[in-house]
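Researcher: Sequence recovery benchmark, item below. Answer with residues only.
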């Protein structure tokens, strides 16, 4: 299995980590009983719940691109150092992003997001160049 494909497989726990964090933050704010119901009359998210929701949404906005690029690497046979570096940058920066976002660390969080975007760009460049 290629390194890029291996990172794609290991990205499943990454997504689960984000979903679990958002779910826990939601239940901490609203309670298990409310979360298990129809959620009618839901209050706006508190600070931590809002951060977890935005972090999950942010991951999902880029995750499909990561998946598509890994599939393109595999199908095209154009994988190499550039695509592997890009995949690692994306994968590991996304692991770092959530704790920084939940902790409310603004500039470092943004820098980590940029690193993940650079990873996607490197993967794309490695495929098309």
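Model:
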């Amino acid at each position: 299995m290629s390194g890029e494909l291996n990172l794609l497989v290991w990205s499943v726990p990454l997504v689960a980590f984000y979903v679990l964090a958002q779910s826990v933050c939601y239940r901490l704010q609203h309670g298990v009983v409310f979360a298990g119901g129809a959620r009618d009359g839901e209050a706006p998210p508190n600070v931590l719940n809002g951060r977890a929701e935005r972090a999950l949404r942010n991951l999902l906005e880029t995750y499909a691109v990561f998946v598509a690029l890994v599939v393109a690497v595999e199908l095209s046979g154009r994988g190499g150092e550039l695509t592997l570096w890009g995949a690692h940058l994306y994968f590991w920066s996304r692991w770092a992003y959530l704790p920084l976002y939940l902790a409310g660390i603004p500039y470092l969080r943004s820098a980590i997001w940029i690193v993940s975007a650079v990873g996607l760009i490197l993967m794309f460049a490695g495929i098309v160049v």
